[in-house]
Amino acid sequence: MRRLLTVLPLPLLLLLPEPALAHPHVLADVHAVVEFKDGKIVSLFMGWKFDPVFSASLVADFDRNKNNRLDPDEMKDLEREAFRDTKPQAHFTYARIGSEPIVWPDATDFRVVAVKDSLMYAFRLPLPRPVDPRREAFSFTTYEETFYIDMDFPTDSAVTLNGEGSTGCKAVIAPDHGNTIFGGAVTPKRATVTCG
Fold first, then answer.
1. Where in the chain are the domains?
2. CB-CB contact of 19 with 146 (8 Å)
3. SS3 call for 76
4. Cα dist from 160 to 31, 40, 118, 121, whole Å
5. Residues 55, 49: Cα–Cα separation, whole Å
6. Which end of the chain is more exposed for a tag (fewer CB within 10 A), N or C?
7. What distances in angstroms separate CA 110 from CA 34, 81, 84, one per listed residue?
8. Average model confidence (pLDDT) for the chain?
9. Average pLDDT of the residues in 5-11
């Protein structure tokens, strides 16, 4: 597509739909641990690993003492000034119990972790009530609607299960065709927990 765009005259470029001209500015690999207790799902522990360029910009913006790392007070600033802004969008994590959308209580246990040349937000999303996946369907997807951030489960094993009662259950990741974003140009993936 990029090659095509370089040879089209400007008037034709203006006729292209917006998704053909747009691209994400931030890339985030999403990993999740579905946490069980007493046989029920009680929370998601999320990890958003950002691309190196965005990670460097976070350090530049929040490393107030210029020691090339984020100290605990700087991480608190980042949480307050950047991460908390994702709450009105469900922390970009849209889950369902059956067909009912989950309204998350507040995220907890936020921290920033260095992973090679990238930064990762790590945080927990407690469910409003425990869910028995043997009796109720549970699934979640993660995306940012404007596609400014491209959030994706990078592999089929990006979602794992842990805790008492998770044995015999698994997470299946597949395209969520009923939930396209960005004018239908992007199809997020949905993780569905099944127990056999």
1. 24-195
2. no
3. helix
4. 8, 15, 22, 17
5. 9
6. C
7. 16, 13, 10
8. 89
9. 41
